[in-house]
Amino acid sequence: MTPWELNLRHLQAFARTVELGALISAAQAVNISQPALTQAIAGLEAALGVDLFVRHNSGMKPTRAALMFQPRVSTALALIGAPRATHTQLKAFWALARGGSYVEASQITGLAAASLHRAVSDLELALGQDLSHKVGRKLELTSFGKSFARRIKLAHAELSAGLSELEALRGLDSGRIAVGAMPLCRARILPSTVVDFQKSFPQSSILVAEGSHAELVEPLRDGELDVLIGALREPAPGRDLVQEPLFIDRPIVLGRANHPLSGKRKPPSLRELAAYDWCLPQRGVPLRDRWEALFRAENLEPPPVRVEIGSGIAIRQILLSTDALTLLSPDQVALELKAGWLAIVARTELTRTIGLTYRADWRPTPLQRQFITTLKSHC
User: Fold this and answer.
1) CA 39, CA 250: separation in Å to the nearest integer?
2) Which of 41, 108, 116, 339 has an alpha carbon 20 to 30 Å from 246's alpha carbon atom?
3) pTM listed for this prediction
4) Which residues contact 343 (CB under 8 A, 6 or more apart)?
5) Model pLDDT for residues 147-173, shown as the tens digit of each residue
6) Nearest 10 degrees: CA dihedral of 321, 324, 328, 334?
7) Are 235 and 187 in contact (CB under 8 A)?
């Protein structure tokens, strides 16, 4: 089951019944009849495959499943903030915001573009706001549409987490974890964590989105990713995100095997290193900033960076064919060093903090917490 298969009216009825503990009060709060409320809760229980309440003469007592699910539902409904919206309308807009066009939204949902367009138009009427507009031939979200899209994506993530927790309660550890992976963690830490974790939770699924911090931070804020792993930023990227250190990395200067500067008795000076071209990530990446500071601390102008690139594989290929140098973690080139393709040219005093970044209001599921525990054990 996916979040947008859940009926929003049923979710509202459920949340208010847990809050108020009585069908009459809950029915009045959501403006439906008591029989309709009873039917809504029964429909939700059937969809979820769990009992949410124990019925007795004095009221409705929530089960463990209900107490676990209700905070997720209440958070999602507060994020949506549109009691007149339907789950069909939200699914249509969620797909439009993800895909960027009705054609892409149709591919995501399997629904006809015309049906999606109608659902989004109905949602705009319910909200009293335009969500998108045409700019030339392109469709763009309005300012309100962008803000609402983020809220909808976060609501989707919250309900997904709730469904995962209910599955765990039923003995099914089949939840999904979405990880944003920056270059360093992809070499050793993340693969070993995934292998170890799935030995214990073979039914789980892990989505890994690769990219730079700049490419991954907005999907994290949108709730599309649960956590980022990689170099932490200074200053921190904002109050809405938490950075948690894992370990200190010490990058090394690398060149091809038999590089003119490798194999010397005396390590090369910064002035000697400055005589060569370099392959490094673009400015703004912590590694690049620290590298520039290293030369400036010795009153030297940083050498030219002929290729700005963050891919370790691409950097390796460039180094193999040139005398260019780079700065990488030993973990990222362990195989290349062992095979004798690359050589350590110099060691530096540079360090960078590797860690986790996640939303300040993120409430991980038990499965996600176990993944983080496994990850930490590999650091």
Assistant:
1) 61
2) 339
3) 0.86
4) 254, 255, 256, 257, 258, 259, 262, 263, 337
5) 999 999 999 999 999 999 998 888 877
6) 30
7) no
